[in-house]
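Subject: sequence -> structure tokens, single chain

Hey, anyone have a minute? Need the predicted structure for the following. Not urgent.
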Amino acid sequence: GVDQRSKLWNKNKLAPHVLVMTATPIPRTLAMTVYGDLNNSVIDELPPGRKEIKTIYRNEQYRSKIMDFIRSEIDKGRQAYIVYPLIEENEKLAYESLTKGYEQVKVFFPDHKYKIAMVHGKQENELKERNMNRFISGEANILVATTVIEVGVNVPNASVMLIESSERFGLSQLHQLRGRVGRGAEQSYCILLGSHTQSNESKRRMEIMCSTNDGFKIAEEDMQMRGPGDLYGTKQSGILKFRLADILVDKDILEETRTEALKVVKEDPNIENPQNELLRELLKENDYQSHWSKIS
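Reply:
Had a minute. Here:
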């Protein structure tokens, strides 16, 4: 995305206006709003008639109970997503693959009563579309999938999102996947299923997901954990070498600084005013007239 916006920016001498829409900004994008490179508006209300999604974390010992719960929702006429992080089995990684998981789901939901569709990135487009349409139309009760369904899928009747090996997903991706449910009037649920042994960072991600549905709050926590990335490059996360400021702790001060900077640019663009003498000297020391670059 960073590369694409850079190409768009450089297509013409006259820079285009850019509108970025996101449920959970990546750390770099959120940092740019703090520094003032992006103006932002936040939609902080659900559409009329929708309810907050309830999110819980469970480990493997709860699998049977989780499947019973999904079965009860399907018996009410609802539908469910079950998402896996991998397509192919990998012996080096101790988490479920989609193909193995699909067979496991069929054990809990036998074919004579339940209809299951599967979609993933390696399928032919025609097959993927056919399976997706089975779920959208209501013919299939369960969609077993990879993250190909994290954007652009709208099935208001789907009330359960089960994310397998949830510790393997980042915060933004977990929130995007959760957003596939909660699109109708009925109560919806997101179940994060993970291993017994997790890193402290993984545990923290699960805690954040269970505590809020606010995409910007999740994005702030994500930036706190991963760092804001490179504002003049393409790195989307990572720790910056701050000397004085912390981008989250000092957010209000940074916004004040931005206001003052815009005032200087507007009222004293050549930095000739005596009251800006210290700023002029600082910019001279840092060779402000050369080596400028910009990636939106």
